[in-house]
Design a protein that fits this description.
By secondary structure, this protein is α/β, with parallel strands linked by helices. 35% of the residues lie in helices and 16% in strands. The protein has eight helices and ten strands. The structure holds fructose -6-phosphate. Residues 35-39, 66-67, 132-134, 138-140 line the site of fructose -6-phosphate.
Length: 261
């Protein structure tokens, strides 16, 4: 795990955007795994800026989103389909047929989940998976207690996730869907690289447990300790409960030094 700590969330978004830009320049048919929520918004803004101002070409890129609520229409203002269109897809040139978001409208969810996994495999796997983290340590909608070997499936959202997402539903907890489709933890772990972003004090405990605690299904993000290429991008607030900050900072400084030689 590489842990990069920056003064604020603008810097972490900019580093993440640079990693994705460089990967697209190296491999124009990059396969990107995408997240929703407040954390990656700044990253999407940076990528949109790179497309508009620097001509970054997304026409060969394929995307797979982590998750979607079940039982709200795709055009609902809080669906992840709406989110992705609003913050990203409407502003870059990823062909519509290359954008994949779990469908909450299928008649047979189980078959849909298998097909989603198959599509990821057929294209050769996800090159870079963008992740946020819940205050309880979830990734995607893999809640506390999810099997570390789980695949794309229907899950019940935890009360903590429902509470965290209620502000997007006019603070009405009953309006937050109880069910979602999510890529599984094993699905996420097969991505060649994971980029986990976190900012703000509310994430500091989950981040400390995920990076420095034991690997456990009680903190789903802790499985990333077993991933061969995960970059964790944090602002200082999200890093505030980590014990090894000095080591992470020295490691990053040395990496930059080596790159500049
Ligand atoms: C959403 C997702 C979730 C969020 C997490 C943090 O696609 O995968 O795991 O990343 O709930 O949400 P925010 O960024 O809103 O704090």
């Amino acid at each position: 795990m590489e842990v990069i700590i920056q003064p604020n969330h603008h810097q972490i978004a900019s580093i993440a955007a640079n990693i994705i830009r460089d990967a697209i320049l190296m491999k124009p048919n990059l396969v990107l795994g995408l997240a929703t929520g407040s954390t990656p918004i700044e990253l999407y803004k940076s990528l949109v800026r790179m497309h508009r101002e620097d001509g970054l070409d997304f026409s060969g890129v394929t995307t797979f989103n982590l998750d979607e609520y079940v039982a709200i229409p795709l055009e609902h203002p809080q669906s992840y389909h709406t989110f992705m269109a609003h913050y990203f897809f409407n502003h870059v040139n990823i062909p519509e047929e290359s954008q994949h978001i779990p469908q909450n409208t299928s008649e047979n969810h189980e078959e849909f989940c298998t097909t989603y996994e198959d599509k990821i495999k057929q294209i050769g796997g996800i090159d870079i998976q963008v992740l946020g983290i819940g205050t309880d340590g979830h990734i995607g909608f893999n809640e506390v207690g999810s099997s570390l070997a789980s695949r794309t499936r229907i899950v019940t959202l935890s009360q903590s996730t429902i509470d965290a997402n209620a502000p997007y539903f006019n603070d009405d907890k009953k309006a937050v869907p109880e069910l979602a489709i999510t890529m599984g933890i094993a699905t996420i772990m097969e991505a060649k690289q994971c980029l986990l972003l976190a900012n703000g004090n509310s994430k500091s405990v989950a981040i400390a447990k995920a990076i420095e605690g034991p690997i456990t299904s009680m903190v789903p993000a802790s499985i990333l300790q077993m991933h061969p290429d995960t970059v964790i991008l944090l602002d200082e607030a999200a890093a505030s409960d980590l014990k090894e900050v000095d080591y992470y900072n020295r490691s990053y400084a040395n990496k930059l030094l080596l790159q500049s030689q």
